[in-house]
């Protein structure tokens, strides 16, 4: 979701390892010519293209010297961007909309990496076959995240009420596995990599993924679509660098879309998944290309309309006080 309160990893710095030994060959710009840029990431899907573009040298080829910074939560990543510590980052739309709703104008949404609808979902213990079967039971999920919104939407769509009919408690992604094993909860909503672990856990099954989300059926909108975001001041000062980053980013998306097996050895260093899990996770997402961005970023298009409906839903579920006009932050000029 969003990422949102997503995806844990130690703070790390990568300096284009894939380009080692090539700087003097003329294939890449010399170090003094490279545009310095900082990116805020994590092991979540939306950061795969950036990590891949660092490791395989695509960013160096485009003249970018990228510093990778990892953050425990999406909110920490957003705070770092607002403070000027990172220039670009991937974010879940829920945390991004929370800033929009507060009138924060210091960033642009400049791209959409993927649709992760089949690698996030609600898992239940055996014997539970519907949302109605969860009445009187407990669901664990990370609050203010895409999985939280999925749970609230699934409960409402079944005619039930959170906290009255079903107990929904706040558990972070990394703690969900232990909570399911211990019996603390009867169900949980999670994203990858916890999604992969739960998928193979004995006595646990997937009841619904993001394709069951009400807005997905009409707009193809998951509970917290991933967004590529750039700090406004950086973009306005370095527009060509942002365009170069986006070019390399979506070249990586094409690798993930067309030859995912080539990305597995690189990405598993980020995620700690095994080969099979990593390949399954990559294939579980629908990776968007640069050519698709113009339609996705159209302010009156289906995707942006879906984001607006999502913002309004967040108000309904008391996750936001008011719905921002999302299109005000959409900027397709760097594509």
TrEMBL record:
It is found in: Periplasm. The keyword Phosphoprotein does not apply. InterPro entries: SsuA/THI5 (IPR015168), TAT_signal (IPR006311). Keywords: Signal. The keyword Signal applies. SUPFAM superfamilies: Periplasmic binding protein-like II (SSF53850). PROSITE patterns: TAT. One of its GO terms (biological process) is alkanesulfonate transmembrane transport. GO terms for cellular component: periplasmic space. Residues 46-263 form the SsuA/THI5-like domain. Belongs to the bacterial solute-binding protein SsuA/TauA family. This is ABC transporter substrate-binding protein. The lineage of its organism: Bacteria, Pseudomonadati, Pseudomonadota, Betaproteobacteria, Burkholderiales.
């Amino acid at each position: 979701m969003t990422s949102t309160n997503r995806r844990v990893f130690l703070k790390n710095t990568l300096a284009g390892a894939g380009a080692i030994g090539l700087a003097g060959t003329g294939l890449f710009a010399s170090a003094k010519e490279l545009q310095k840029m900082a990116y805020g990431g994590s092991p979540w899907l939306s950061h795969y293209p950036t990590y891949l573009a660092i490791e395989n040298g695509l960013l160096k080829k485009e003249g970018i010297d990228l510093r990778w910074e990892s953050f425990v939560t999406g909110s920490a990543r957003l705070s770092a961007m607002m403070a000027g510590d990172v220039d670009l980052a991937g974010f879940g739309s829920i945390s991004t909309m929370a800033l929009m709703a507060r009138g924060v104008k210091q960033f642009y949404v400049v791209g959409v990496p993927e649709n992760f609808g089949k690698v996030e979902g609600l898992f239940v213990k055996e014997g539970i076959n519907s949302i109605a079967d969860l009445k009187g039971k407990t669901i664990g999920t990370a609050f203010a995240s895409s999985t939280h919104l999925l749970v609230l939407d699934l409960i409402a769509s079944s005619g039930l009420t959170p906290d009255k009919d079903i107990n929904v408690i706040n558990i972070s992604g990394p703690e969900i596995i232990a909570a399911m094993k211990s019996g603390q909860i009867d169900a949980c909503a999670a994203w990858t990599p916890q999604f992969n672990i739960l998928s193979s856990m004995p006595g646990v099954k997937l009841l619904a993924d993001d394709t069951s989300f009400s807005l997905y059926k009409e707009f193809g909108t998951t509970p917290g679509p991933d967004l590529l975001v750039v700090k406004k001041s950086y973009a306005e000062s370095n527009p060509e660098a942002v365009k170069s980053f986006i070019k390399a980013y979506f070249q990586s998306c094409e690798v993930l879309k067309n030859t995912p097996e080539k990305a597995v050895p690189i990405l598993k260093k980020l995620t700690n998944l095994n080969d099979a899990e990593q390949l399954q996770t990559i294939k579980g997402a629908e990776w968007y290309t640069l050519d698709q961005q113009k339609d996705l970023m159209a302010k009156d298009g289906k995707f942006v309309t879906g984001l607006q409906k999502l913002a309004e839903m967040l108000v309904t579920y008391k996750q936001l006080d008011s719905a921002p006009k999302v299109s005000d932050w959409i900027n397709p000029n760097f594509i």
